[in-house]
Known about the structure:
The protein has helices spanning 5-9, 12-15, 58-62, 67-76, 91-102, 117-151, 156-167, 190-194, 197-202, 242-264, 272-282, 289-298, 315-318, 331-351, 378-394, 411-416, 418-428, 441-453, 457-471, 475-490, 495-500, 506-520, 527-544; strands at residues 19-23, 34-37, 51-55, 81-85, 107-111, 171-175, 180-184, 211-213, 218-225, 228-235, 306-313, 356-362, 365-372, 401-404. By secondary structure, it is of the alpha+beta class. The strands form three sheets. It has a five-stranded mixed sheet. It has a five-stranded antiparallel sheet with strand order 7-6-10-9-8, with helices on one face. A four-stranded antiparallel sheet has the order 12-13-11-14, with helices on both faces. The radius of gyration is 34 Å and the shape is elongated.
Amino acid sequence: MLPTIRSILDLAVVQEAGPVLLGGQGGLDTPVRWVHVSELLDVTGLLSGGELVLTTGLELEKDPSQTPSFLRSLERAGAAGLIVELAGQRNRSLAALRTAAQRSKLTVIALERRVRFVVITETVHRMIVAEQLERVEHARDIHEAFTQLSLESAGTQQVVEQAAQMIGAPVILEDLQHLVLAHAARQLPVAELLGDWERRSRSTPSSARTARAGQEQWLHVPVGVRSQLWGRLVVPTPTADDDAAAMVLERAAQTLAINRLAERDQRDLSQQAQAGLLSILRNPRGLSEADALARAGSLGLKRAPFYLPVAFRAPALGNLAPESTPGTKDPLAGQQEERELLDLLARRLKSMSGSALTASIHSGSVGMILALQAAQLEDATLDRIADALIAYAHGGGTPWRIGVGRINSTLLAAGAGIDEAAQVAEAAATLPGPGLPFYRATDIRLRGLLTLLRNDPRVQQFAESELGGILNLETNARDRLLDLLGHYLESGGNKAALARNGYLSRPTLYSRLAKLEELLAVDLNDAESRTSLHVALLLHHLRSDQP
């Protein structure tokens, strides 16, 4: 922290000179950026703001009537304060200064005895330089700490805890729907820290830069990359030094963004060749069918009349997004599970005299293009693979979920279907219960798709935009209106049927539906509006129920 006028007055060299406060007591805690010695009566062009001006006041002694204009010039220049040495019989100067100081906001101090200004300037400048050096060293410590966390691909919780420790205050990471992804409470009870969080957070507007905002004056910083923001870090309590806290928050936000990108780009190096070909087949860019078959054949895929895209997803990794998991799974452990799956699939295919291209396509997901000699063999082949995975899970292994794309007669078309199969598998991994042996797109339906997309910031923004008029209300009113909207949409927009079912009397029902239309700024009679609201409501419930 920069020295203040109060701390400078406490210096021994100043106390020995007999300081007397003439005016501006409210500015004693003003930080001093530098000390400037001058005998000029107009220093407007010499100061840049924040300086403590020292003067003997001899020019004022010649013409005390210039004292008010002198103080005004210091105020215009942004001076932090004024110290005037009035040793000896300087009654005229003292009287003029006291009168002018009482009419000015500037802090004015008179010294009754002589003092060596050079001692004051050296002492204060040493304090300022020491503070600047301390900030540089602190910035270096922050940089080193978060750089190490980036190199280690540290989990979200670890990054948040490091930030809280460095700031000495609670830190919270939330997503765009104001749901808490990770927090470090420090000494504050968690119930107090997170109590009524969504309402409090919604009343605190976000900004594109580090700032304090809202009724509780939260210090917050956005998290993400430029236009792809996906959350924000918040310090909901006062800090000892906002500048230092902001520095920590910004580095923590950068680390979270970098680590998230790194997690998305992980690939299984042990399957590099097949993973590379699968990647090309998903986006062939001019690759011919003959070239694709040749490359796939060199990796063990036999030519067949049909090719089936399949994907495998681990529920432990798919059930929660990486940013919402306090104890994110060790990436090395995830890679080991993928290797075990690849070995298991290879053994099962060998026992069936089958062939396939199989490789990790991204963290927690494995892709496959399965060669089939007949379309009728599709379900039987998938059942045998599923049986092997079920037995593996019963033995303590990972309970992988299987997503299946559409069967194709060309390898390129099957390669293009890998992403569809992966999406089905990822959605299936979020569904409760033991589930089906394998899933197709027709099995996951809309709820499954939304479960897959619920952590996408763009989808979250859609839900917020559609339901914002209700979500910004207090909890009780919001829940009642959301329930009403849900019942209305489930009834297919049939108001008469909803009233007949006894939910509300017709006048009350119509009145509340009109209120809904007003808050949501939509026409509930419009089919497209109801569809959008139904999707947004499903997303809201999925996010609210997320572990």
